[in-house]
Design goal:
single chain, 394 residues, alpha/beta, Metallo-beta-lactamase, Chain A, Rossmann fold, 2 domains, 8-stranded mixed beta sheet, 12 helices, 35% helix, elongated, binds MU-OXO-diiron
Length: 394
Amino acid sequence: MIYKKIKEDILYAGMNDKDRLIFDELIPLDNGTSYNSYIIKGSEKTAVVDSMYPKFTSEYINSFDENKITNIDYIIANHGEQDHSGSIPALLEKFPNAIVVTNQVCANNLKEMLLISEDKIKIIKNDDELSLGNKTLKFIISPGVHWPDTMFTYLKEDNIIFTGDFLGAHYIFDDVFAVPSKELEKSAKKYFAEIMMPFSGVCRKYTAQIKTLNPEMVLPSHGPIHKDPSYILNLYEDWTSEKGKNLVLLPYVSMYNSTGEMIDYLSQKLEQKGIPSIKYDMVDGNLGDLAIALVDGTTIVMGTSMVLAGAHPVSVNIAYLASILRPKAKVASFIGSYGWGGNLFGKLSELLAPLKLDIIEPILVKGKAKKEDYLKIDKMAEEIYNKHKDLGLI
Ligand code: FEO
């Protein structure tokens, strides 16, 4: 456990989980993650904001005695997901007079997921305040970043805001304060792509709201505390903007490299036109890298081999992932090669349909691409160029 004084009577009480390699059993972690809990000591009452991932409950609960925290009056639940709420039952056992404070939606989750009884929960509404004596907590209900139950807790006198998952990162540290770096930005962006990007519009709204509030610090429930909130808020402003970058994503799977050769050729043609592209090997690639690229890409061209009369299952998986992450891409197409026949692009088109992408005529080749197929790829590159130009990206 790390205990660190953040400001007078405000403590960080969190944990680095450096051994965690994957989150949500989906996206690999480069830097582990941290679970952040905070203790606020008012002149009359003491509150904890968010608790701990269940795996570390014992260590977390024991740390209160070790750090001479003898009483907790309020347990503020900014979010019901178990990596932050999982230790609340143990906290209630240790501090039987404590009351959980949260919004109605989160309360419902805590009752269902952790069997916390109703009489232990105080429901608050947007803008409600809770006095700790000389410190006042104000609650900002913020549904959709990233569950319907999420909210922020603003500590008025100190002008600092506890944002739950929002503005966080899967990142570990020796010190708890953010030091801007490429690694931190990458971790925060990957984290955004996985859990916040599907709700980009909502994230944009709360980014602006927190900017207006102009807090002295942003204290998320994963990753470092931001003493310079503009660092993470400016990144979120960019990532949540509706306009993508002049960038084409080329996720591909190729069994005999026929599709791979066409993807390489398209990448070269795009480069000649001043359009950067990112090739992503759907078999050997790191899903986190693809997720990050999806935050910026305007066009997606998927390359796939055919397996048993349909798209390669790996490409189906990636099309599904892209559809649920809801990136800002506007344009798409497909390139692929088959051996004996079938429907190569049907399933992929169906999966990507909810994104309402502008689809460029796909290119389907039997075996290796011939001269006429390369001419079609030239045409595809030209169409992408024109669409990026129309979108004001070139
Ligand atoms: Fe870190 Fe949505 O929990």
